[in-house]
């Protein structure tokens, strides 16, 4: 009895238990039980007017509409950019893409655009104990320069924060037309190695120019290099025959991977970036969806994407995680009908308006280039509603940081958690928008586009780019369609916008 009270023994006991609890802390990140799963569903080239939830009348997208009806539907949400690579860069890094001169549409052979030292959304989540995964389109470069597709390809998503990745390297219309599973080409036969080149063809390999008879989807502009599954692509590829994906099965394939990811990781907080390939070219709906929209393959793949989202949501429900999962839905840039193939997108569009009431489209500094459908859905936690707050996809990084009890002040991302959760309408005041390396300023209700040389319309895709020799100033609250340039009639506002723009752009 006396021994127990011996101070020396007490000291030893305290040191022992102290060490034990420290050990626990160091070996395993502390995961709060109630941290929600986070899923970002990101479409490719889906426009502001492409969903019935956003006013489309010629198409019905019931599953995405269900997210909009049960969540917050944003009317004034932006991608950072009017093309894919920069928007995805901003989404994942929280940085304005124009700060990185290389953030442009990348070929399939481009090196990794995100530095492995850089802050990223998945890294931030990982630190809090999340399991992080990407399924779908990457388009942020791979490797450090010359990629050997027959070896493990690195660095890539796994080196910038994703525990698991199952991706297509660039776009569906670019080689290599293979899936990459955690850095390794899926189904590759070592006796038939893959070679990829964006400058010159491999001797004797057919292209859309040398062998037009092999082509089942005709090219309109670009897209006349190697032919895979009858579809001519951007870039040349040789070998890897067994590894080539099936275009018509791509949607089902990625859906299956996304569902498997949820099933496997449902017991731990997870982050899934489900980056769908629709309705980017080439539009290759599964036969189940062919002809379903009446708008040609572009409409059909939007219906296909909507169906996939419905199936994915069912999986969240059956796996018991629906009420503990924040789902964020959006698209990387505005819509385009003819983006390089004759695929009836123009001919069968009828009275559908992919841009809604907005001016421009993909590649454009006008609103339709960057203003996106954007929905946040969290069953039981987000009160359904509509938000007119100004937000950017880039803001998800700092806002999700807040949600999971951490913070990030190192990027351009603005913490707007309450806005994303529908509890506040107090969004951003200013936002620099980007389209093919040109930038414009959104501030309050106003949009200012500085003068840019270059054509006003890109005829090949039939989209107004936003270029003008004059300053352009629009009041978006009164003139959402950007019909009236107020630069001359409101010089004070113009001056204020130019000054703000120069400060933000660091000029
Ligand atoms: C363009 C392609 C276009 C599309 C785009 C990338 C041509 C002529 N056009 O260069 O078809 O692939 O790049 O789209 O090659 S994005 O959504 O990934 O930014
Ligand atoms: Ca895109």
TrEMBL record:
Taxonomy, superkingdom: Bacteria
Name listed for the protein in its UniProt record: Arylsulfatase
Record organism: Flavivirga eckloniae
Lineage, highest ranks first: Bacteria, Pseudomonadati, Bacteroidota, Flavobacteriia, Flavobacteriales
Sulfatase N-terminal domain segment(s): 36-405
One Pfam family cited in the UniProt record for this chain: Sulfatase
Protein family according to the UniProt entry: Belongs to the sulfatase family.
Stored SUPFAM superfamilies: Alkaline phosphatase-like
Molecular function terms, GO-annotated: hydrolase activity
Cleaved signal peptide residues: none
Keywords, sorted A to Z: Hydrolase
Entry keyword annotation includes Glycosyltransferase: no
């Amino acid at each position: 009895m006396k021994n127990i009270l011996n101070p020396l023994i007490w000291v030893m006991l305290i040191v022992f238990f102290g060490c034990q609890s420290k050990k626990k802390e160091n070996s395993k990140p502390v995961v709060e039980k109630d941290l929600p799963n986070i899923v970002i569903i990101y479409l490719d080239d889906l426009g502001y007017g492409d969903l019935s939830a956003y006013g489309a009348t010629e198409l019905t997208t019931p599953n995405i509409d269900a997210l909009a009806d049960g969540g917050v539907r944003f009317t004034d949400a932006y991608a950072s950019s009017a093309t894919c690579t920069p928007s995805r860069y901003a989404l994942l890094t929280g940085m304005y893409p124009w700060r990185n001169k290389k953030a442009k549409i990348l070929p399939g052979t481009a090196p990794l655009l995100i530095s492995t030292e850089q802050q990223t959304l998945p890294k931030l989540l990982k630190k809090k104990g999340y399991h992080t995964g990407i399924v779908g389109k990457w388009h942020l470069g791979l490797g450090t320069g010359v990629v050997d597709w027959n070896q493990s390809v690195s660095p890539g998503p796994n080196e910038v924060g994703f525990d698991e990745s199952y991706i297509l390297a660039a776009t569906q219309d670019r080689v290599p037309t293979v899936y990459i599973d955690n850095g390794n080409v899926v189904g590759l036969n070592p006796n038939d190695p893959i070679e990829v080149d964006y400058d010159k063809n491999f001797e004797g390999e057919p292209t859309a120019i040398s062998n037009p008879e092999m082509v089942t989807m005709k090219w309109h502009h670009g897209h006349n290099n190697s032919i895979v599954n009858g579809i001519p692509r951007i870039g040349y590829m040789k070998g890897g025959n067994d590894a080539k994906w099936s275009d018509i099965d791509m949607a089902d394939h990625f859906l299956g991977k996304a569902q498997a990811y949820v099933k496997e990781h449902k017991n731990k907080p997870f982050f899934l970036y489900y980056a769908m390939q629709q309705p980017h070219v080439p539009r290759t709906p599964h036969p189940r969806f062919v002809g379903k929209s009446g708008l040609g393959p572009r409409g059909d793949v939007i219906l296909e994407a909507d169906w996939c989202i419905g199936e994915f949501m069912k999986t969240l429900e059956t796996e018991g995680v629906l009420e503990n999962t924040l789902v964020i839905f959006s698209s990387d840039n505005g819509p385009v009908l003819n983006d390089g193939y004759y695929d009836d997108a123009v001919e069968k569009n009828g009275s559908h308006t992919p841009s809604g009431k907005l001016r421009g489209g993909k590649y454009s500094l006008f609103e339709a280039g960057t203003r996106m459908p954007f929905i946040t859905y969290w069953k039981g936690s987000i009160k359904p509603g509509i938000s007119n707050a100004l937000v950017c996809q880039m803001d998800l990084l700092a806002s999700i940081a807040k949600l999971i009890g951490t913070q990030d002040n190192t990027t351009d991302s603005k913490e707007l958690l309450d806005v994303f959760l529908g509890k506040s309408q107090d969004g951003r005041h200013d936002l620099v928008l980007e389209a093919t390396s040109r930038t414009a300023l959104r501030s309050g209700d106003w949009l200012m586009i500085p003068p840019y040389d270059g054509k006003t319309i890109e005829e090949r895709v039939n989209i107004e780019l936003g270029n003008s020799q004059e300053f352009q100033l629009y009041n978006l609250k009164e003139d959402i369609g950007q019909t009236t340039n107020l630069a001359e009639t409101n010089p004070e506002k113009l001056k204020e916008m130019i000054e703000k723009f120069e400060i933000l752009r660091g000029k």
